[in-house]
Amino acid sequence: MSNPSFIVATAGHIDHGKSTLIEALSGTNPDRLPEERRRGMTIDLGFAHLELADPEQPGVVYDLGLIDVPGHADFVKNMVAGVGSLDAALLVVAADDGWMPQTEEHFQILNYLGVTRGVVAVTKADVMEDRETVMLEIAEALKGTAWEVVELVPVCAISGEGLDQLAAALARVLRSTPRPKDAGKPRLFVDRVFSPKGAGTVVTGTLAGGKLAVGQELVIEPIGVKTRVRGLQHHHHRVEEALPGTRTAVQLHDVAIATADHPKGVKRGQVLMAAGVAEASITLDVWLERTTREVAGLEWARKPIKTGQLVRLHLGSGNYEARVYFEGRRELAPGETAVAELRLAEPLVVLGGDVFVLRDWGRAFTLAGGRVLDAAAHRRRFRKPGQQALLAARAADPGDPAVWLRSQMERDGWISGAVPLRQTRFSDEEVKACLETMSEVRWLGSMWVAAAAWESVLDRAAEAVRARHRQQPEALGLKLGELRAVVEPLLPDPRLFEMMLDELAARGFKRGAGLMRAADHAPRLPQELLAAGDHLRRALAEKPMEPPSVKDLTPSATELKALKFLLDIGEAVRLDEKAVMSLAGYEEARKRIQEVIEARGRVTASELREVLGTTRRILIPLLEKLDR
User: Fold this and answer.
1) For the chain, is the Cβ count within 10 Å smaller at the N or the C terminus?
2) How many CA atoms lie within 13 A of 230 on its CB side?
3) How far apart are CA 282 and CA 322, in angstroms?
4) What is the pLDDT of the chain when averaged over all its residues?
C-alpha cells in the first residue's frame, strides 16, 4: 500500500520565513524563479516534496506535496491559486512581527476555502524575547475560529530549533485527516505550464477527485480542447497512474502553451478533466459568507458587497471576472451569509460543491468566500421560489448528496439519468447509495421521478378517464390523444406517457382501440337511444352472415348514433363503410373460414361464400379485413 498523500501549503505575511521553513523541512528551496532568489521574495508559487515520518507511529510515512505561496499583498492572486485544493496548511507567523495584515488575509482565505486543519509555525524563535506573550497574542488571533485548537510551534529554520516538534505536530494533524477523495472525477487544476526540451507541453497541478493514467483521454476546460496523457510524474518520478491528493506533472499530447497568437493552448487557471463530467456555465448559484474580521489598514474593505458589483472569482488555480446578484436584499455586509448568483464574463466549468474566494475587482482585497450550490444555473430561474428553496436546503447541508437529490426533486419533480448529480463533487457510488434508500423517488426507465409527483400524474389521468365515463356513459373510454393533452404538461418527458398507460393498466384500467377506460366501466346507451340500439341488435342477429347494409340499418341520426355506440363497445364490427356485422357473426365467420383453409389448404372466394351462406357484399370486405 502506498504512503498516504496529502497537499500542504504555507500561508502568512511577507518576510515571515515561509520559504526558508519549507527548505529547512524538505531540503528544497521553493523559490524557483531567478528574480525571487535575487530579491529574496517569493513572487509565484513554489513547490517541494517531503516524506514525513510519523514519530509516534513507526513505519507510517506521509507523502507530502508542499506548496509555498507569496506573502506580499500584490501577489495574493498567486497565493489563492495555490491553496484551492489543500488537506492542511502551515500558517507561518514571525515572532518579531506577530499577526500582520497578510497573515490575516491569508488566514481568512484559508477559512473561506474550508482549510481548517493545520499547524501554526511561530518562526524566528531565536529573537522571541517574551515567548509567552507572543504565543498568547497569536492564540488570541485564532480565538473563535476552527484554528483555535491547532498547535503553535516555535521554530527557527536557521538553527533547526523546533523543526522536529513542527514535523511531529504536522504528523498528528495528518494522522486524523481523511485521505483525499476518489470520486471518479479527476481534475487537475493547472498552476504551472512549461515545455522541457523534447517533452512537448507539461502542466503541473494538484490532482483532486480521481485518478489519472497514462493514455487517458482528457479535456482542457473551459476551452474544450481534447488531449491525451502522454506521461505522468509525481515528484520527478515517472508513474503510470497518479492518485488524488498528489502533486502531479502531466505530459500532454498535441497541445501547445497558450499565447496571444494561440489562445487555444493551455495555461494556468485551466483544469484537466475527464470528458462528459461537466459542461461550461455562464451562471453559478452559490452560497456566500463574509467574516467580521478585519485586515489592518483595510478598514474600508468592510463596505457591503452591492448587488451587481464586479468581483474577481478565485476558484481552483484560476481567477475570473464576475458580477454578484442577490435576491431579497441589496447588499451583503460583514458577518452575513446569503445565497447569490454569479454571472460570469466567460463560460466556466465547475462542479457543485466547489469552494471559492471573491476579491474586489479593482483594489484587489478579499471580500468573501463561498460554495457552488448549482453549477448549471439559469438566470431566469434564480429568483423563483423553487430555486431559492433548493439553494437554501443545499446551503444548510452542502456535504449530503441526499439533500442535493431531494432539493432538485422538490424543484423539478424529476432528475434525468440513471446516476444524477454528475456535475457535483459527489461520486456516482455516493449518489446511487442515496437513491437506493430514498423511498420518495422512482426509477422510470430514463429518469428518477418524485414518487408523489408521479402519483399525482396517475391520479390526474385516472380522474380524466372516470370523468369521461360520468359525462358520456355511452362512450367506451377516453381517447389516448385527449388523455395525452391532459397529462403531458405534467410529465418531464413525453416518453413517460406510454409508461403511465402501462401503470394505469395495472391499476384497474384497460387500453384498447386507441382508448383508455376503467376495467369496470360498462358503456350504456342513453335513454333516447335504447330503442334504436335494441332494433340494431335484432337486425344484426337475425341474419348474422348477411346483415342489412349500413344505409338500411341507419335511416336516421338516432340509429346512426346507436350503431356508433355498438361499434365503439365492440358489439358490432365494421367491415367497410357500407357493411357491418355483429361481433358474434364476425367471430363465427372467422372461425369457419379458418377451419376451411386448414382443411383444404387453398380455397376460393366462391367456395367461402357457399360455406358462410353470404353474399359478395359481405364476403369481400370481410376477407379484406381478415387479410389486414
Assistant:
1) N
2) 13
3) 9
4) 90
